[in-house]
Amino acid sequence: MARRKFVCGNWKMHKTAAEATALVKELAAGVAEAARAGEVQVAVAPPFTALHAVATALAGTGIELAAQDVHWEAQGAFTGAISAAMLADACCTHGIVGHSERRQLFGETDEGVRRKAAALLGAKIRPIVCVGETLAEREADRTLEVVGRQVRQGLQGLSPEQLRQLTVAYEPVWAIGTGRTATAAQAQEVHAALRKILRELGGPVADEVRIQYGGSVKPENAAELMSQPDVDGALVGGASLKAKDFLAIVKGALR
Ligand code: 13P
Fold it and tell me: Which of 54, 66, 112, 205 has a 20 to 30 Å separation from 169 between CA atoms?
């Protein structure tokens, strides 16, 4: 089945509200053409402090708003945390969970990913659930075991209808910010394995779930990666900070 490609820019810890607004203005000028007026779904994930300004700047552009993280509790004494309801209030329609930087630097666990994804769904925000193996795990031939565990545990207990709402992002840790991209064949192999697991978890709905690739996606490699049958878009870090590069990647998603 034809899945609409989905390209999301993860701005990580970059851009003040003013800088973020300026980038959105540049994106807005070219996105309709780059995405051939909606053929590709496009979102950006600014830091929390820029969400409000970016939401305002995005109005009418067709670009959607994503958060980079969320806390699973609804409210309470959780200093520094942001709830799903707060993200909905800030106009987020997507939320990234389980990013490898959160897993590696901030102690995110598969159980945390599961709770965060459920909290987002409860607030009608679509989770982007990230999985990916380290270089050591790939070299030990453990890639499918690791991403399999991450996706099974992270999505545990979700109904097929909930699975339909979410996106999975395969981001090999060794490819993030390194300039070393997975080959199209390496990406396709893992994406196909992930879809098989999604089928076990949710049945036919697996054919509707988008699986993005992330890790050094650039204008030069985007089209080849996204031409693979199970690569349904991209989660873009560094290259999403420059309008020209991000728009070129969006164009790469067009068939
Ligand atoms: P880079 O595109 O900078 O490698 O980052 C990928 C990523 O982590 C997106 O979430």
Answer: 54
Separation of alpha carbons 216 and 81, rounded Å: 29
Q: How far is CA 53 from the centre of its chain?
A: 21
- Which residue's alpha carbon is nearest to atom 1 within ligand 1? 237
How much is the pLDDT for 37? 85
Which of the 8 DSSP states describes residue 231?
A: -
CB neighbourhood size of 220 (10 A): 13
Residue with tokens 């994406």: 191
Q: Which DSSP string corresponds to 174-204?
A: GGTTTS-PPPHHHHHHHHHHHHHHHHHHHGG
- Which residue in 64, 71, 94, 99 is the catalytic one? 99
Reference 115, options 165, 164, 74, 67; nearest CA is: 74
The residue written with tokens 């309470």 in the block is 76
- Cα torsion 72, 77, 79, 81 to 10°: value is 20
Q: Check if 233 has its Cβ closer than 6 Å to any atom of ligand 1.
A: no
The β-bridge partners of 41 are 6
The residue type of 184 is: A
Q: Are 179 and 217 in contact (CB under 8 A)?
A: no
- The two tokens of residue 67 are 């958060």
Superfamily of domain 69-241: Aldolase class I (3.20.20.70)
Task: Give residue-wise pLDDT tens across range 183-238.
Answer: 999 999 999 999 999 999 999 999 999 999 999 999 999 999 999 999 999 999 99
